[in-house]
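Sequence, please.
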């Protein structure tokens, strides 16, 4: 208790020095904690997107690439609408090497009197879907009925509520778990419901017609699973030659593009963290070097009063650990305030899948940031503690006389 009181008095006697140490270590903790959380969230988002996709190839209308980035098809659940004749689904299924094929229909709602909020509506066939249905089954324990919808976690409504799309009332049957992508703001329904909504959209003069002679039967995309031990690239080429007015795109290429973007962001964050640490360490060493001369007389008195070199070194390291712990705790708390309320903004800014870690992982990263910061602070102080403990009390006091 006496040693602790002595440390508190030493720290409070030099408030400027103590505050500087706390601020520097807080800065280190913020960089470690925030950087780790962001990189971990990006990696979790990519893993979630890979697990949710489930398709080897996506077939879309030929003009779709001019309307929306294919990477956004994965990241944002599409922005806008595009259509092709529904016969494309059967042509895809007839293609050699295709194991499964499932169609989806896209419809963008308007944030107006006709709709609750602006969302991307995705219609799918629960009977043969292998992309959306496994994900929905985690939140819904019965078949999705007509005029029922399942909403992403960021759609502002609750299960059981009525949800209006083009003046058609739909019941919210379930709310999905977070994916860290734009799919979290999407709405899912079966094919009967999407056709009702398409007709309602046409009544609002938002047409989905195509020049095919089959205006009532359209699809926006066909998701394809190739047979085991079949080369997806070969099947992709066959689809491009067999399905007219459509483009087949391998999801592996899109995932690689997203992964490359994620790697670039991760490297940038790592470089920034290293730069912050190098700068902070340099400043810490300068601060502790200044302490050598500042505390020579003070510590010489302690030595004359009987404090051993080991006790003196321990006292300096404990003072540093206390400042580092305080700074790390404040820095981690501030980092949480800076990161967690703005996850949607971070996702939008980076344009990459972003899925926040679970609470257990967050606690682990916080403890890691605090531990690393304390260790670095003590390591920076170790040299100074060693030098000060070797001070000759008589010579020091005579120099100051």
């Amino acid at each position: 208790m006496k040693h602790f009181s002595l440390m508190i008095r030493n720290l409070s006697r030099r408030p400027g020095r103590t505050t500087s140490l706390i601020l520097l270590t807080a800065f280190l903790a913020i960089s470690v904690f925030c950087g780790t959380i962001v990189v971990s969230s990006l990696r979790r988002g990519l893993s979630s997107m890979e697990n949710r996709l489930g398709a080897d190839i996506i077939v879309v209308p030929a003009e779709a690439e001019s309307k929306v980035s294919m990477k956004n098809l994965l990241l944002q659940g599409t922005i806008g609408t595009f259509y092709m004749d529904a016969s494309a689904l059967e042509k895809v299924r007839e293609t050699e090497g295709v194991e499964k094929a499932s169609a989806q229909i896209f419809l963008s709602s308007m944030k107006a009197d006709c709709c609750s909020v602006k969302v991307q509506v995705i219609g799918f066939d629960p009977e043969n879907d292998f992309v959306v249905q496994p994900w929905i089954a985690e939140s819904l324990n019965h078949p999705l009925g007509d005029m029922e919808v399942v909403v992403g976690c960021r759609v502002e409504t609750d299960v059981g509520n009525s949800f209006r799309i083009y003046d058609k009332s739909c019941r919210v049957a379930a709310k999905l778990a977070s994916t860290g992508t734009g799919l979290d703001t999407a709405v899912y329904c079966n094919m009967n419901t999407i056709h009702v909504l398409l007709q309602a959209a046409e009544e609002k003069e938002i047409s989905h017609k195509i020049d095919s002679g089959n205006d009532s039967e359209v699809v926006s995309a066909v998701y394809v699973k190739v047979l085991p031990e079949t080369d997806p690239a070969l099947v992709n080429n066959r689809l491009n030659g067999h399905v007219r007015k459509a483009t087949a795109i391998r999801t592996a290429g899109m995932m690689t593009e997203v992964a490359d973007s994620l790697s670039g962001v991760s490297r940038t964050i790592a470089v920034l963290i290293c730069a912050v640490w190098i700068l902070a360490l340099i400043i810490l060493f300068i601060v502790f070097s200044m302490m050598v001369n500042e505390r020579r007389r003070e510590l010489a008195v302690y030595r004359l009063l009987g404090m051993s070199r080991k006790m003196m070194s321990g006292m300096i390291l404990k003072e540093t650990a206390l400042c580092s712990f305080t700074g790390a705790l404040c820095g981690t708390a501030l980092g949480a305030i800076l990161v967690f309320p703005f996850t949607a903004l971070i996702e939008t800014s980076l344009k990459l899948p972003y899925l926040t870690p679970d609470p257990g992982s967050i606690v682990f990263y916080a403890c890691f940031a605090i531990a690393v910061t304390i260790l670095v602070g003590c390591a920076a102080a170790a040299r100074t503690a060693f030098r000060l403990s070797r001070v000759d009390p008589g010579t020091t006091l005579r120099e100051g006389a």
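The mean pLDDT is 79.
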